[in-house]
Every structure is written in structure tokens, then in C-alpha cells.
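User: Teach me something about this protein's shape.
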Amino acid sequence: MDFKLVSDYAPMGDQPQAIEKLVAHLRQGVPAATLLGVTGSGKTFTMANVIAQLNRPVLILSHNKTLAAQLYSEFKSFFPENAVEYFVSYYDYYQPEAYIPSTDTYIEKDLAINSEIDRMRLSATFSLLSGRRDVIVVSSVSCIYGIGNPADFHSTMIQLKVGDVMAMKHLMYRLVEILYTRVDGDLEASTFRVKGDSITVRSSVGNHCYRITFFDDEIEEISLIDGETGQRLDSLEQVNLYPANLFVPSKARVEQAVLSIEADLEKQIEFFEREGREVEAKRIEQRVNYDLEMIKELGYCSGIENYSRYFDGRAPGMRPFCLLDYFPEDALFIIDESHVTVPQVRGMFGGDRSRKENLVEYGFRLPAARDNRPLRFDEFEGMLGQTMYVSATPDSYELRRSEESVIEQFIRPTGIVDPALKVCDSTRQIDRLMEDIEACVARGEKMIVTTISKRMCEEMAAYLEKMGVRSRYIHSDLDTFERVKIIEDMHADLFDVLCGVNLLREGIDLPEVSQVSIFDADKNGYLRNYTAMTQVAGRAARHAQGRVVLYGTTCTDAMRRTVEDSNRRRERQIRYNIEHQIMPSQAKRNAAQPSPLLGNNADEGVAIAADTRAVYDTFGATNVGVVADTEANYDIGTNLDSLIEKVRSDMERAAKSLDFIAAARYRDRMYELQQIKQDMLENSKV
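Assistant: First, the predicted structure itself:
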């Protein structure tokens, strides 16, 4: 199936020439190209058009989960009929296993897995393994970490056809081997239930339920059923059941792995004994033997990823299998915000290796644990096919790889020019900030305040709340869905000021934000260099009256360069608008449409809205009014009681469908109507 791009608007500004050049260069076979586009110029829409024209499987690599969630939402909107998948780390919390020799402290691994993200990771790999060509996977750097061998997925997948000769008990054993769990009650993902001569299975991905009916030792019927009611929806000739985990080796591979682990354990014990390190020898013997018992009995153990090399059949030092192995050779790789993402990929291996060395050196893990690792950067480069880098501030690495294929995109479709930058003395920055916030709120606009640390970010949000300002904070300590929810709440007008650190830089789409205030702009370092301040300033570049205030006691070279480059782009953009008689118009996001990561699909019973679209009304169009708009006036004769009841029922309906943003807006409207009714009653008594 080909990609089918769905959009309410066509390429404008610099987008048409950028799309044409990028497609031409990539079809010519260049190894890499760079899209150098300012914030708000529609780089994502340009990417979507390039994808639609090239018609190849795509990996879009992002540097953090918040931006990955936004990209997933947008591409789900652009390609509702194609397979748009989401692949990020499934940990809401993760404390890696570690040992600190200086204090003789062992830190056990601790984690909390998000089951929905785990399901989406499975969905991404299965879409790629299915042979589909219309697949877009939006991923974080999680894609360079080890997962199962793709070949094992084909060998462990259960293929069932009507008429197959198979004992019912044999199918039950096969399901347990691929980590499905037998239950007697309600079916969840990766579970099955046995009743009479049929087995009902809930798939590990997609939450589809299948009933396999047997007649003696033959599959008589396969039905697609509703997982909640048990109602039969369709009759199928065949079905494929994929493993419940990305790491499920075959039985023969497990047996061979156990033998290899035992052999390496003997060697490691002998090594420690030769060195006179009896404590380490005893420690590694106890820990590995315990893991082996668990593997033999259950097929897995805690920390089984440390034995991944044995289960994958890899030689010592060989790189792990990862998501990139699931893509075909002609896949297109898009690295979004490449100036941050590329260095992040480069740094993953070193941090992981230093931690593993201590665990191996002191007898907590076998040397094979070193091979459970992310890709080295040279390995990552070797696996990339044609690559498209996307950034407003590309680094020398991307520009060097792209050579002559660097395409600029400075003119925005909306005609909005870069925000005006202003440098202010920080001696009375709080007073000035409060004045600016008051003015923004009065105009119905939003503001971002960026600080130099997480603690200052939280304290700033708390201070603003104390002063009566509706504010929130966002930083890396919040989990994936919390960050997405905060962004959606700002779209829904639930607060006015968002405080953050570096999460409010690359790619975060907040067209409501008219001002960005940057504290400690004169501090030298990663968070206040030219790239960082240009990216932060870009958060106001989607607003027609965008402006940026840089607070500091001096004007650093980074501040000076940021202001100069912004003024140069503004001059070019204003000249273009004058020549083409374009009046800048505000882009608005439909706040009633939440991210697919927060929605609800009643048909599948999961917290993912498969085809939810984040619609942008551009070129001066306004959003359709909703019940929660707060400026409405009512005549005395209005039947408020019936209107209040209607809003209440709308609120309850939205809450039941898990659309909490809409529910909150209905709730606010209900409170407003109740207050109006109360005021009317009091006035009638006077």
C-alpha cells in the first residue's frame, strides 16, 4: 500500500522548493540531505510530503519522548490510512543495576514498565515484520538498544489456519512458550482462556481477540470476537499470533544458551580464583546459577537481557540486534532536531559501558553482559541507509555528510516572521516578568519561562501559582504521558505560563505562546549557547506577535549571535511578505483534539486513539466554538437549568471516553452557568 497524505492545506512559503529539492536529491541516491528550516516553517509537513512521494518505510528519530509523542500525533494525522507507529523506552521509571566500588554499594535494578508503550513497541516491530511498505516508526534513541533477533520472531510466531491438524493442548503449550498467560477471567493483552473445545486468545498487539475452535485434533473455525462481550465479529481463514515480548528465543536456542552460560561461568570462576578473589568468585557463582535455574524452569529471569548474546547466538563483541535490523535496506531515516539527536546517540555507548565494567569486574555479571548495550556510533552510522537531517541549527556533522544537499526553509506558510529579541537587565527580572505575564494573560496569550535548573523551574512555577498565575512546570523527571498531558492542557487553556528547562526547546509545538522569557541568558554553557537560545526563542515563532526576552547582566557572544541571526532572518522574511503581499496570520491548534497517546479507542479498548487528528487551522482561520468558551453572555430568559444539564451530560460523556481535556472544559462551563444562575437569583431578590 502506498502512503496517502491527508491534509487540509498545501505546501506554501519555502515548502514547495524544499520538498522538490529533497525528493530529487534522495532519488538521485545521495547518502544524506539536510533540511535547514526555522521553527514554525512547517518542517514536519515538508517531511510528510517527502515521505509520501518516496513511498518507502521510514524511521523518524527524535531525541526525547515529548517531541516523539508530538511527531507521532502529527504523522498519525497526516497518514491516517497507513501504519504510523511509536517506539520509545517503555520505562516510566528506571534505575539501572550498578555497583559503586568506592563505597561497596550495590544498586539493584528497579523499574516500572508502561504496558501501553510496551504494546506500541510490539506493534511497531510487527508492522515492519509483516512486510508492509507504508510504515512510519517515530522513535527515541531507544531504537539503538538491544531487542530480539528478527529471525526469532518468525520462528516463534504461531500461524494458524482452518483445517490445520493440531492438538488443542499443543497450541496451549505453544502459547506459553511465546510468553502468553492462561487466565480464567477477563482477557488482557497476551493472555488466553480455555473453555470446552475452544481457546480464546487476546493478541499481544492491537488487542484483537480470536476464538480458535477445535474438532478433535483439527482447527474447525477461527473467529474474530469482541474482547468485552464475546460477540463474534468475523470469520477468518487464518491468523498469526506474535510473541508477547520483543525477546523470545526458540526452545533450541534457550537450551544452547544455557550450555554456553554454564561454560562461561566456569571460566569466570577460575579467573577470579586465580586472582585470589574468592568473594567475587562466590558471588558470580551464586548469581548466575540462580538465574540459570529460573531460565530452565520459567524460560526467563530478572536481568535476562544480560544474557542476550547467548540467546541471540552472537559472537563476543558483536553488536546487539535493534529496531534498525527490522527495516528493509531501502528504508529512509529521518533524524529530527539532528543537532541534539546525533550527539545523544553518540554518547549512549560510553555511559552504558562504564557501568557494566564495574558489574563484571566485581563479580555481579558475566563478561557477556558488556554485549547487552546500545550501538556504538560507528555501528549506528553503518546501519543507516539514506538519511535526512532536520534542524533549525544543524551541526557541522550533518552539514559535512550532506555536502551539497543542504536545503533551506526560512519562509513560513503563515507569513509569520521570527520573534523580536530583546535583552533586559536581570536586576528586576521578576517584576518585569510579572508585568509581561499580566499583559499576556489580558490578551489571551501564553508564555514560556525557561530556567537554568529543574529546581528553579519548580520554584518559579510555585511562585507564580502563589501570585495567582495559572502555571505548570515540565522537565525530564516527569514521565512520558505526564509531559504530553501538560502540553495538551496548555492547548486546552487550562493554564497560562509553562516553566521549563531544556525540554522546552526543540520542536515543541505551542502556537498559543506569544512570549518566551529566558532567565540567566548570560550564563555560559550547554543550556545558554547559540543553538540552545535559538531553539528556545523558536517556541515563540508560531505566534504572529512573538517576542523573546533575554535576561542577563552582560551580553555574551552567544546572545549577540542569536540576536544578529534572528534579525537577519526577520529582514529576509519581511521582504518576502512585502514582495508577495502576505499579511502574517496566526496558526491555531484545535484544542478539542487530544494527542492519540491520550485518547481512547472504544473499538480496541485501549488508551490509543488510532486516527485522532491534530488539526491546525492556518491562514487566519479560527477554531469552531465549543461549549467551554468562556465569553458567552446569556439573556435573562435563557433556560439555564436545561443548559446546565446538557453541559453536565456532555462532561460525563467526555469523561467516560477518557477525553479529560474536553471534560474539563465542559466542567468549567458548567461552573460558569451555575454561577450565572446564582447571580440571577440574588439579583431577583434585590
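Now, about its shape. The chain is about 40% helix and 20% strand. The two ends are 71 Å apart (CA to CA). If you'd like, I can walk through any region in more detail.
User: That's plenty for now, thanks!
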